[in-house]
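Human: You know discrete backbone vocabularies at least as well as I do. Show me how you would write down a chain together with its backbone fold. No explanation is needed for now; the record alone will do.

Assistant:
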Amino acid sequence: MSTGRRRRGWLVPTLLIVVLLAGVAGTVIVLRFPGLVPGPGATVVPVVRADVVAEVRVPGWVRSSVESEVSFAVSGTITAIEVAPGATVRAGDVLARLDDGPVAARLAAAQAALDADLQEIDLARRSIPVDVVVLSRAEADAARDRADITDAERALEAAVLRAPRDGTVIAVAGHVGERVLAGAPTPDDAPSRRPFVRLLDLGALVVRAEVPPRDVARVATGQPAGAAVDGVEERVLGEVVAVEPAPGPDGAYAVTVAGTTPPPSLRVGQPAAVRILVARAIAVPVVPLEAVRVTGPDRGTVLVRPPDGRGPDRAVAVTTGLADDVSIEIRDGLRVGDRVVVPRTPFAGARP
């Protein structure tokens, strides 16, 4: 037998073994990673370098960073309301008044009693010998009357509601002739306990966002943020300036975003779409989100096509990083230029 025939004799079985192994490899892929088998419409894209920006996107509303809720510290009947919604006030300006007639009468009575006590004290001291019993009783009465005067003066001052700071009146909760309770709105049977006057600083508007518990751990003060406000063409660009330590009644955490130069057309109460940048990776290897089958935290599998396009696709385990709406960072397992298969239908749980 010639040498050529002997070579052909072992070459054919070798080729059969290679084909068989390729078939076995394909079978292994099907058995272990059935979701990785590309279906009709799958595409192939290279691993490229790009930026990945991770954001938290939540709803929000325009608010004032300086809000005051002002209510009467004493109970009484409203005799005057000096402001209306939209009014601009300065610190110390009168907002409303209560009927101070009973308090004024109490003050006058206490003052008259004190005057009488002082006269009695003077007479007791002039008597010879000094009437110690009368003097002691008169001095005790005078001390009590002085305390009554102080209380009445405080009540008289509390019957006048004043602005604690400069601002704009947003709401007034009562009307002249109604009765208010100390620290509560009017009328007495109001179903909701709102302040008598709400005062805002409209020169310090911010966007207050509501962040769900699953995302709040990624949010911190100083992070860049922006907001698209309904009805306002210019975006609010700034940063996170406050994160509430506890959730509100709805379970979300209040996050405050302050703009560097807020648009002048902002109004309190406007809804906004808030975007908070929580992480960024610059010029890193990325693949489309749809190309990754998630297998665990920061772990996944992709299907890699051979460089020459021949032979079966390989299932490759990768370590993933940041992800956005389009791409996901590949930290290990692939190189720039590798070609990955992107199925037409994304894998279940493809987003990390």
Q: What stands out?
A: Helices lie at 3-32, 101-126, 132-158, 213-216.
